[in-house]
Every structure is written in structure tokens, then in C-alpha cells.
Amino acid sequence: MKRTIAMLLCGAMMLSMVACGKSQTVEKKTKEDKTETAEAANELGEAKVEDFEYKALDYVTLGDYKNLEVTITGDYEPSEEGLRDYVNNTMIAGAENAYFEDESQTEVKEDSVVNVDYTGYKDGEAFAGGAATDVLLDIANNGTPGGGNYIDGFSSGLVGAKVGETVDCDVTFPENYGNADLAGAAVVFRFKVNYICAPANYDGLTDEYVSKVFGYDTVDAFLGSAKEAYEADLEDQHNYDIRSAVIKQVIDNATVNSYPETVVAARTDDYIRLLMKQFGVNTTAELNAAWAADSSMSGATVEEYRSYVEERVKTNLNTEMVFLAIAETEGLELSDEAYQEYIKEYLSADGASEETLALNYGSTVEVGSLYIHKLALANLGVKTCTDTATITEEKPAEE
Question: Are residues 355 and 261 in the same domain?
């Protein structure tokens, strides 16, 4: 689902952990770790709010931004076929159990998905943690459909079993298994084959399935809710496409003459501060060492990464400055109520406080809050453009 108040103007403070084009992951620190690190000395010093302030019209020459004629391409009208696709591809495909019982299948094959109950026995005694009921097994992948894998050989002994049968399968746990009592042990898993599955789909929905998987009493109740969600998604997509097209045209019409270098440097430094917090270090030398020791990182130095961040900061500033310049030209001001409305969706989605949200955008609450306020004000500039635009809709070309 597209956000109706999307942070399309998101900038450097929310850059993904990417160095030299490679996606990275960074170990999360505890709240106590972050607090301790924030209070420790940092070679970059503490971010100064005044370094992040600028007047956009000093750097931007605006072109036409009101009464634009914009064309978007998409199919935004609800339809039975669209609802069917939404249920199949979004709701069922995203469900934990995307399978029906298929009564036409009676024997487990190498590519079957089966529903089983099982109990594990060691030396004839059931062992703790070795039993489960109503479990889906993807035989070909030796795991749950779309999920994790079991130990080697866990499900292979089920091939050829009939629905309703109980089958004993000999399995040996790996020597390095996490449970010392089972590491290297030869055990027997006793399976009961409850049924064989077929992929769930819109046309085969039953009251039993929607009750079990989605918590609705009837198919009609489920489809009523699905229709509401589908139509809301269409509306969100429609608004998103309008907004994106208007933003692109306004930016194309404007000229960014230069960048506020103090702001570029401040935002770049602040992102490095955020990295230091995440790694629990206080200097770029320590960050380089921690980075080099982390096998998930690409091996780029902090200085190399700083150059990458700086370019991303400028790219994001292009959009931000244009719409802040519009806000300045139009005399737009951000009320507390408008700001709260802007961040409400993000607070409710993450269950976060305003302080936590701000610290996702800056190394201090003050810096992060200033940055989000700029985004919110720039979005008022976007609204000015979209509210006055004339929108023409075209249907996608048929394939």
C-alpha cells in the first residue's frame, strides 16, 4: 500500500546502509548502548542546529509550479478481476497459510506441500520440543512453504505416504546442532499425514479457510473487507501517481543553482554520527576498524563512504530545496496541527514516540526534528502544486 502522505522528500538522514552500491546490515544497539554512545566524546562534536538551516530561494530558481497539466497512466477503477488479483497476490500470497486442502490428492510426492502432525522420539522416548500439529511441509525444500528449513532428511521419508497414514522417518541431527542433547543423535520422527495441499486462490475460498487463516466467519465477510482494502489501495496508488508526476514536472521546471555547503557538510557528518552510534564507537578510526571487522560490510573506508553520502545528500536536497522554495514563495507556514498530522502515520506504524522518530533522522532530537519539519513544510509546497494541477488519466496499453 502506498502512503498518502509519503515522505517522498526523504533525505540523507534515512539513507539505507549502502556503501559502494552494496546493501549492508548493521548490528542494532540497545537503548542503553545508544544513550551511552551519544553522551561520549565524538571527534565530530555534537551537531549544531544552526548548521542545518538555510533559505531555499538562495539556491533555487523556480519555474512553473502552479496550474500544471500532468498525465498519469494507470487503471484506478475497481473491478472483479482486480479484486481477484488483489486477494490472490496480496492477501493470500502474504498469508502464513496460502494453501487449501486438496482432496483429489491422496499420495505425497516429491514436490507436494502436506499438512502433518509429528512427534520426535529419541531412544523410544518423545523429546522436548520435538512435536507439532497442523504443520505445513514443503517436501521439495524440506521446510515450511516460503519459510525456514528443517534438518537434512526431515521430510524426505514422507514421499509415497498416503493421506491418513502414520509414517516413521529415521533422522540424524547434525553434530553442531544447538541442543547438546540432540547433537549427532539418531531419532525417529513419527508423522501423521493429514492432507495434501494445493495453492489457495480466490475462486476456491471456503468459510473454513477464511476463518482459519484470516479470522472471518464467512467468505462474504472476508471479501467485503478485502474489497475495502483493495479500493483503498487503488485510491492510494492514484494519489501517489499524481503526486509523483507533479513532483517530477516541478523539479524539471526548476533550476538548482548551487547547494548550501554548510548544510551538505552538516548532514553528511550527522549521518556518520549515526553510523558511529550504531557501531558503538566514537571516532572515524574506530568506525573504520569496526567496519572492516564486520563481514556484512563492503570494505569501503569511512572517507569513501562519506563521499557517497555527500552525493546522496545533494540528490535529496534537489527535491527538498525546490519545494521549500515554493513554500517560501507562497508564504506557507507549518502549524503544530499540520506537523502532527504529517508524522501521525509514521508514529502509528512503528509505535514510536516523536523523540524516537527524530533520532531516526538526526543524531540529536533537535536536529532530527528540524529535518522532519523541513520535510513537512516541503510537502505543503507539494500540495500547492498538486491542488492546482490539471490531471489527465490514461489507461495502460494492453499487452
Answer: yes
Cell reading at 344: 501521525
40 band by pLDDT with thresholds 50, 70 and 90: very low
Q: Which residues contact 64 (CB under 8 A, 6 or more apart)?
A: 250, 253
Measuring CA to CA, which residue among 363, 378, 294 is closest to residue 12?
Answer: 363
Asked whether 390 and 70 are in contact (CB, 8 A), the reply is yes
User: Quick one: which of 79, 4, 1 has its CA closest to 242?
Assistant: 4
Q: How far apart, in whole angstroms, are the C-alpha atoms of residue 162 and residue 170?
A: 18
Question: Does residue 37 belong to any structural domain of this protein?
Answer: yes
45 domain-assigned:
yes
Taking the C-alpha atoms of residue 225 and residue 216, their distance in angstroms, rounded to an integer, is 9
Closest CA to 72 of 389, 322, 385: 389
Burial of 333 (0-12, 13-18, 19+ CB in 10 A): exposed
- For position 33, what pLDDT does the model report? 42
The model carries a pTM of: 0.72
CATH classification of the domain holding 195: 3.10.50.40
Indicate the residue among 161, 176, 199 that finishes a domain: 199
Give pLDDT tens digits for 267-277: 999 988 888 88
- How many domains is the chain partitioned into structurally? 2
Q: What is the residue-wise DSSP string for 359-374?
A: HTTSSSHHHHHHHHHH
Domain of 190, in residue numbers: 99-199
Residue 259 has pLDDT above 80, yes or no: yes
